[in-house]
Each structure stands twice: as C-alpha cells, then as structure tokens.
Amino acid sequence: AKGAGRNQLCFFDPALQAETVERALLVRDLRQAVDNDEFKLFYQPIVDTHREVKGVEALLRWFHPKHGMVPPDRFIPLAEQTGLILPIGQWVLETACAQLAAWQQDMQRKEWTIAVNVSGRQLNQTSFVGLLRRVLQKTGAPANRLRLELTESVLQDNVESTIAKMNELCELGVRFSLDDFGTGYSSLSYLKRLPLEQLKVDKSFIDDIFEDSCDAAIARTIVALAQSLEIGVVAEGVETPEQMKWLVENGCQLFQGFLFSRPVAPEELAASPIKLSS
Ligand code: C2E
Ligand code: CA
Ligand code: CA
Ligand code: CA
C-alpha cells in the first residue's frame, strides 16, 4: 500500500507531468519541423591567430512557429532519444554541403571548411557512409572542406567498428574533429588510432583558465597533446582578448568564440570578423 501511494504521488506530481507533456508536444512538433522548413543552419567562424576566418561550425537552429527559437540543448537530446536525429542530421549535412558548394563560386569563402556536428547515433547508422557519399555527389561539395565533429561518447562502445567507419569516411575525403575534448571518457590510447585532424578544447576549460589553475593545466595539456600527436587544436568559447593571448602563448592556433563572432545566419557572415582593439 505504501508503494502504491508513492507511485500515485509520483503520477500526479504536477511539475513532472507538465514536463512530460511539454516534452511530448515538442517531440510531436519536432517530427514536422524538417518538412515545415523550420530549421536553419547558423555558422560560427573559426579564426587563426590573425583573426582571419579559416572555417565555420554549422550550428542548428529551430524556429518553432509558436515558441520562437528553441535552443539545440533543448531539442537535440529529444531528437537523439527518438531517432529523429537521423532525418534532422541528414538535413544538416545536405544544407552544409550545399553551402560549401555555393562558396566555391565565392573567392573570399572558397577555402573555408564547414564543421558539422554528428551524433553517435547518426554515425552508427549502417547507411551513414553511403548517405554522405550521396550528399556529396548531389550537392557537388568538395569533401575535403567538410569536417565531422564527433564527441568522445561515440567511442564508448564498439571502438573497432567506429574506427573502421571513420577510415571509410576519410576515403571520401572528409576529416574529423574530436569535440568537447576532455569532458568525456576517451582513453588516450585510442586517440592515436583515430583518424583525427584536430581536437577541440571544451569551453568549460577555457572559461576559467585565469581562476582555476587546474583548468589552465588541462587546457595547456590538451594543446600539447595535440601537438605531440601532430594534429590541430581549436579552442572553443573564447570570449576575451586575454583568453586568446593566453592560448596563443600556449601554442593554440585556432579559435572559436563570441570574441570573434556569435553563430550567425549565412547571409550575415562577414569574410573577416570585426577586429577588436586588444
Ligand atoms: P557544441 O558542438 O559544443 O557547439 C558549441 C556551442 O558553444 C554552440 O552552442 C555555440 O553557440 C556555443 N558557443 C560558441 N562560442 C561561445 C562563447 O564564446 N561563449 C558561449 N557562452 N557560448 C559559445 P549551441 O549553438 O547552442 O549548440 C549547443 C550544442 O548543440 C552544440 O554544442 C552541439 O552539441 C549541439 N548541436 C548544435 N547543432 C547541432 C547539429 O546540427 N547536430 C547535432 N548532432 N548537434 C548539434
Ligand atoms: Ca561542435
Ligand atoms: Ca564543442
Ligand atoms: Ca558543448
């Protein structure tokens, strides 16, 4: 009887119920969002030490007809849980590749890369290599300008087949970044076996480099690790000139963050971010 009481209490918890209903409604709307053309890709520049744009990261935005812009942290987890990340992720790849193809006619943007976030569930679908091959063919995008950003979580299970798939994708010409590096569980021993072009130092380490000597040590170590593996490294979430200066002094050469630009619609992308006096 006690147990039943607890269950009832749980069932009628109004806050929990509101959350469940809200979630169900969002999932319902998410199912329609691709067809209703509610997604847009925003792009955030990745710059070098001279603040020259080298590429961009594609970041998904959902413009819900009633709620306005729903942040990705709210709907990407739902998309992953429901499998909707597969059609949504395909739309992201098609849109980013179409953008890459269009930039081939644009002298200022021809050399830019586009990094696309790919979730583990997407990478693990059996048809992913074929899907990407078709998207590249259909759009005419240069594969060597496409970067796929994976997080360490894709290495949680079946590392061997993940490595094999990454190698197959490399043969198409695309390259890989390991995103949010340092926040996950990846074993350093896998790192040298993965075909990676670069590591991305997670924003959480950059945030506190001046307040937290541990975070500073971690950021410095990740940069050094990338150097010794002879791969690139991008610092994420750079917000101040002091952070950039510190990163440059510690050997980092690529930067992404609000200091340079927020993610913006493609029509708002400047060829070079506005230089702040620093
Ligand atoms: P992420 O891949 O780590 O992307 C970087 C996030 O940091 C973006 O948030 C970006 O707007 C934010 N950011 C960049 N620089 C700064 C900064 O200087 N300060 C602050 N405060 N934030 C900064 P966003 O766009 O909200 O995306 C959140 C996450 O959603 C992404 O994290 C990524 O995991 C996921 N996501 C976004 N688009 C896609 C997508 O197309 N597919 C998948 N699977 N996931 C996506
Ligand atoms: Ca990313
Ligand atoms: Ca990241
Ligand atoms: Ca993140």
TrEMBL record:
Residues 23-277 form the EAL domain. One of its GO terms (molecular function) is cyclic-guanylate-specific phosphodiesterase activity. The keyword Repressor does not apply. GO terms for biological process: cellular response to nitric oxide. Keywords: c-di-GMP, Coiled coil. This is cyclic-guanylate-specific phosphodiesterase. It comes from Marinobacter fuscus.
